[in-house]
């Protein structure tokens, strides 16, 4: 966190060039400052008229009461005139900090929800660069820009009627983006901080440890949570990796005695077709089932500690203004007393239950149908080929695969649109809730797509050797492809791009630097990163007992993944906005659900293993009896996992105590407040 | 609630006789009143010395700071001198109301957590009889008696050393009960209110509706929740009862067409051994699965509304003093700042997970073993009997049953003790949490005991006709036995008891009336009542598809059950203390879990039905394939239930809004408080 303490010269150079006088006026005396920090860059379309730019700038600097954002604005002063640079006055920063429910260090050393009126009792209140992190300041600017609203029906100057018409309470920013006036909004990089962070992070010599606090300060909540989880996950992979290596290399044949599980005749312990012996199978399966629960529970504790540390454990999203896309009957919010659209919860739930879930189910069905069709036609075509054996049928052999890939891609594209539309129709009030439901839909589909083939092999073909082959090739090929696309390509691109950049910078550093930032591609979000981890975790927990090298390979992958992700984020994309969050959202339940599904899959794989089959045949059990026993074992294991999860509290005791303290004090405060109010009224009649 | 408004003459007659001067002095001027309402009766053992009684009375009236209860106390003045009558001064009532976190009507009409300092803004504050219900006042007295603690090591006067030694911070009341000094503590009945309530309740002519608010006011939270649930449950039984009657009487044979489910050959639809046709089977099973979810979700909404209405939705048990049996390292509670024993949460959870759960599991295993042993010996003995056929072996035939009954009873008694010991070892801080875990343990065992035989018939013997026979005899026999023990016996007992009572009363109404109250048996608690409902619900949701008359029979049972329970409670037992609660505790999840287990059981029963067997045989499916299909169907049904449960919000919108309002205001208040405090300090320097 020391990096925040230094004066932000990298950013403030712009101020020196353009001079503080070019910024819009500050109305509030406490916000007047000789140095203004540019935070966010708005890029307009090239054909935007000066009058439109003028209007946008006036709205951004207008007070909140007039529908503005109460921010500082600068015209950018480059040749094209297509930029607006935005900064934030102190009062706006502090007000929004309170609105967001961010916690900051109080004078007694505890984290407390920030209150504007009580600001003088918070630490570092005189230095905004220390009080709020760069990412928080930039998110606040974004938040305020998003909440600009038209106060009445009006027209945007310089834009023709249908596009430029604003209805009362409509979001101005959304309208401008839809109308194509605004091309892009990016938070600005601080080159000095960035290079310091990069040195600590991906150029670091040691293999271990990421500067999580600095990442949080520079990139913000969601991104910091991703890297914290990646860090924790990688560390947690050591035990299964060691076990996997041990099983693969030190137990090559079957002389491994596993106490009471394999005390039957030694002849049974012989290897079957080079696959691990049943005892190591079982050790691996049981270990990975318990490991995944312990891992997730410990991560929850870590996550709770981080959210206290980063001041995001009392976020007050439900008491804020609803997100821009939210619609409903305009009425007074009974809780906060603000005028805003209202939408009943039960309607949303009915839409989720009766529309979204069935539609998602249909798409999952289509994936299954596609796979079934693929197998059907493949068999058909290879039958023809065998029968005729001509060159024409050789070409035909590729047809089912090509058709299936096409089908999957088209389906995926349609589904992405449908998922967005469905989530919009659910009409979530909060941004986080919208993200949650949208990500869930995409995630379920992506996951299903990824695992459909493996499940098919495991549950229908019941072909363990094929599953093992498939799994190892997936792990190795994916890894090589990832390393290439994530490391080599970006590195080359970066070399070319940055060298071009550097030449330009020598001429007119500030303006061109801004332009260079705008020209990078937008950060595609964390979905791809998280789903990669989830799919890996799936390989590990669902199937690792057939291929014990999964964990070591994943460990290797993650160690490089951390660096390449960091490099990508710092160098190759525009800096993304990142909201303060209290956990990693929907990904946490996703990992947990997977860890429970893993019990079923592992039980099933054990059932399929030839050793178990032999054992049951010798014991003379019918196949349905064996199935019933497997179901019972599965339920017992799920019970054990649940007990284990119960025994590890979700938050460390010290976090719980801090949370309860706040709860207790606010309960007390609510009671006191009423009395205090009447007491002040009584004793200070001069007020009236 | 109107009954509270009337002056409580039934109770205050005692005051007239004994005169206010016989009560202990009131220290606080606002609590002085010409009329004192006796609330609780403490019965001492007969051999207690006057000096001990004197000491107890002085402790009860001592201030809280001295370890006392700050209550009013009256020596009782009967011949034997073994009674203490306790009343509560206004200040104590109000202080504890705040401590408990009870909500009362604020001047703006909303329910708000009561605050002593702000008392003048609450409605009815001048009349304790209207402000607090009788049950609440009596519970407050109990609560204060329970929290009497020795301030230092001391001896109870008049009791020999080992029993009479009090350690610092030891609960005085617990010690006195253990030492046998206190025989009994009962809240006093108010005959006038009671007879008015009885008239409304069980002597009521109409079949429907209970005076729930009056029950809550007179008997208190836990009891009111039981009757509310019974009420709601009975009402909810109408749809399945109607369906059951319809299936039984209007679909005697199999010509019932069920759309797409039975479009196969009509020959398949013929009746099998007089059991209902498969289509009605399926209708019944699917209906009861969905019905149970809808029922539980709607009850949750009703429960939330009741808890708001009764002011128990913000109970602050975790911020109160711990329950008397709680032990731990004496330290400052970091949340409230009070000195009290502390015990880490993770230790409790480890004890639950590693000790309690396995031990309970062992006992459940013993139940199963007992049953297996019974069947084994029965087969053995009947084999002998067939072989020899002598009179001696006829007697032997009864041996397995007798042994099994003995075994079950002994096991049950051991288990009850073990469950109590285990829960004590878990060392719960709150009374409600202790009850929750204790009840869970007993409940699981009792339920298992009740259903073991039925499960055995359904899942191992796979004998549906036997299951149907057993179920119908259980339902009918239990009902007849219940009606007899719960209605006829109590009625006869009551006739004899009350007539004896009435003669006595004419002589010296007050004192003998008190004595009569003490002589009734203690109320055995609601466990037996709830478990009866749960077992019934189990019959209905788990097995009703084999015996559609279950629901009508249960409906009939419940309609009488309401009246007999009410009669019992009013007439045949001492009035119980009943804590203010926000829901029906562990019973709610118990019913929910059962409703999910019902999916498995219904799927299994459908699988066993001869019709499905024929169908699968015709389709040529192997038995393990059929099992897999059944498992898939089961999972889909569980999904549907979960979606249904998700779609019905757990609390009505208006309750959610009220709750969020309080949350929002206390968040605001916490911020304001700090400023208010400094503001008052600044503006009122004269204070110093």
UniProtKB/TrEMBL annotation, chains A, B:
<keyword id="KW-0812">Transmembrane</keyword>
<feature type="transmembrane region" description="Helical">
    <location>
        <begin position="232"/>
        <end position="251"/>
    </location>
</feature>
<dbReference type="Pfam" id="PF04547">
    <property type="entry name" value="Anoctamin"/>
</dbReference>
<feature type="transmembrane region" description="Helical">
    <location>
        <begin position="442"/>
        <end position="460"/>
    </location>
</feature>
<keyword id="KW-0472">Membrane</keyword>
<protein>
    <recommendedName>
        <fullName>Anoctamin</fullName>
    </recommendedName>
</protein>
<feature type="transmembrane region" description="Helical">
    <location>
        <begin position="389"/>
        <end position="407"/>
    </location>
</feature>
<feature type="transmembrane region" description="Helical">
    <location>
        <begin position="537"/>
        <end position="560"/>
    </location>
</feature>
<dbReference type="InterPro" id="IPR007632">
    <property type="entry name" value="Anoctamin"/>
</dbReference>
<dbReference type="GO" id="GO:0005254">
    <property type="term" value="F:chloride channel activity"/>
</dbReference>
<keyword id="KW-1133">Transmembrane helix</keyword>
<feature type="transmembrane region" description="Helical">
    <location>
        <begin position="627"/>
        <end position="648"/>
    </location>
</feature>
<dbReference type="GO" id="GO:0005886">
    <property type="term" value="C:plasma membrane"/>
</dbReference>
<feature type="transmembrane region" description="Helical">
    <location>
        <begin position="352"/>
        <end position="377"/>
    </location>
</feature>
<feature type="domain" description="Anoctamin transmembrane">
    <location>
        <begin position="215"/>
        <end position="661"/>
    </location>
</feature>
<comment type="similarity">
    <text>Belongs to the anoctamin family.</text>
</comment>
<dbReference type="InterPro" id="IPR049452">
    <property type="entry name" value="Anoctamin_TM"/>
</dbReference>
């Amino acid at each position: 966190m020391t990096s925040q303490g230094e004066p932000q010269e990298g950013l403030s150079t712009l101020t020196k060039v353009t001079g503080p006088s070019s910024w819009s006026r500050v109305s509030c005396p406490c916000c007047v400052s000789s140095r203004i920090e540019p935070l966010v860059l708005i890029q307009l379309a090239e054909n935007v008229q000066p009058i439109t730019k003028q209007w946008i700038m006036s709205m951004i600097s207008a007070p909140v009461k007039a529908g503005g954002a109460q921010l500082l604005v600068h015209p950018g002063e480059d040749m094209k005139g297509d930029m607006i640079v935005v900064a934030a006055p102190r009062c706006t920063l502090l007000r929004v900090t309170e609105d967001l429910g961010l916690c900051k260090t109080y004078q007694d050393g505890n984290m407390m929800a920030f209150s504007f009126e009580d600001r003088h009792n918070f630490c570092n209140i005189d230095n905004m660069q220390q009080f709020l992190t760069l990412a928080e300041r930039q998110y606040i600017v974004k938040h305020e820009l998003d909440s600009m609203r038209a106060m009445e029906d009006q027209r945007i100057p310089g834009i023709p009627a249908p596009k430029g018409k604003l209805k009362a309470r409509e979001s101005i920013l959304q309208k401008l983006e839809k109308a194509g006036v605004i091309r892009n909004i990016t938070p600005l990089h601080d080159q000095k901080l960035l290079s310091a962070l990069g040195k600590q992070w991906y150029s670091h010599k040691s293999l271990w440890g990421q500067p999580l606090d600095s990442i949080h300060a520079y990139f913000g909540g969601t991104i910091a949570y991703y890297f914290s989880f990646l860090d924790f996950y990688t560390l947690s992979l050591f035990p299964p990796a060691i076990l996997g290596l041990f099983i693969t290399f030190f137990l090559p044949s079957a002389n491994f005695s596993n106490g009471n599980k394999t005390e039957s005749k030694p002849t049974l312990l012989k290897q079957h077709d080079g696959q691990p012996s049943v005892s190591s199978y079982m050790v691996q399966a049981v270990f990975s089932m318990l490991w995944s629960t312990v891992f997730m529970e410990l991560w929850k504790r870590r996550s709770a500690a981080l959210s206290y540390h980063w001041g995001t454990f009392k976020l007050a999203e439900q008491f804020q203004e609803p997100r821009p896309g939210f619609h409903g009957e305009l009425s007074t919010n009974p809780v906060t007393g603000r005028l805003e659209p209202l939408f009943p919860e039960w309607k949303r739930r009915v839409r989720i239950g009766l529309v979204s879930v069935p539609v998602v189910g249909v798409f999952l069905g289509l994936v299954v149908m596609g796979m079934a069709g693929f197998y059907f036609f493949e068999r058909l075509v290879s039958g023809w080929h065998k029968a005729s054996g001509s060159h024409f049928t050789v070409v035909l052999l590729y047809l089912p695969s090509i058709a299936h890939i096409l089908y999957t891609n088209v389906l995926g594209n349609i589904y992405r649109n449908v998922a967005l539309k469905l989530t919009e129709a659910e009409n979530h009030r909060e941004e986080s809730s919208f993200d949650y439901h949208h990500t869930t839909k995409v995630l379920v589909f992506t996951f299903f797509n990824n695992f459909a083939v493996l499940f098919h092999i495991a549950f229908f073909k019941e072909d363990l050797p094929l599953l093992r082959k498939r799994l190892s090739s997936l792990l190795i090929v994916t890894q090589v492809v990832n390393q290439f696309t994530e490391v080599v390509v970006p590195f080359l691109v970066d070399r070319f791009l940055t060298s071009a950049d550097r030449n330009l910078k020598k001429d007119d550093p500030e303006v061109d630097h801004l332009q260079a930032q705008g020209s990078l591609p937008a950060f595609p979000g964390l979905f791809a990163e998280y789903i990669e981890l989830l799919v890996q975790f799936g390989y590990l927990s669902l199937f690792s007992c057939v291929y014990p090298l999964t964990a070591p390979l994943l460990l290797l992958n993650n160690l490089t993944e951390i660096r390449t992700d960091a490099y990508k984020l710092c160098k190759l994309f525009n800096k993304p906005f990142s909201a303060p969050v209290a956990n990693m959202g929907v990904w946490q339940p996703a990992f947990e659900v997977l860890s429970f599904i893993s019990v079923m899959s592992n039980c099933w794989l054990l059932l399929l293993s030839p050793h178990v089959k032999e054992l049951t045949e010798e014991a003379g059990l019918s196949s349905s009896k064996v199935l019933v026993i497997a179901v019972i074992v599965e339920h017992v294991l799920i019970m054990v996992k649940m007990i284990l999860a119960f025994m590890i509290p979700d938050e460390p005791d010290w976090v719980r105590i801090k949370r309860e303290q706040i709860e207790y004090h606010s309960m007390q405060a609510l009671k006191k407040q009423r009395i205090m109010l009447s007491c002040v009224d009584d004793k200070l009649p001069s007020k009236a």
